[in-house]
Amino acid sequence: MNRASTTGVGSSVHTGGSIPINVHKKKMIDEGETPTVSKLYLRIHQTKGSKWVDDKSKAAYEKYVQKLSETQTTQASIDGFNPSTSSEPSYEEQMKIWIDANGLTKR
């Protein structure tokens, strides 16, 4: 068993290999796509057929989506929901939501 793994399934698996996340982010921008935490995570944790690389990745994403939804619902109730003015959280805000949902990776 890999000592770096706390789940017993070995180290994390990525479809992008050893390419750093900032390179994936730049490629998305070059392709005309706005990189979000969600899009980047899906890009490196799902195969082209939308199959998850492992259950741990799927669970982490589901926790993030739930927390993002809760955050947006709370914000809408505070601000008063207006679909024409509602916007997606900034990348930095999305990262804060990810950390709230999943914590930080220990390295």
TrEMBL record:
Comp. bias intervals (Polar residues): 72-89
Pfam family, one: Transposase_24
Top-rank taxon: Eukaryota
Disordered: region residues: 72-93
Protein name: Uncharacterized protein
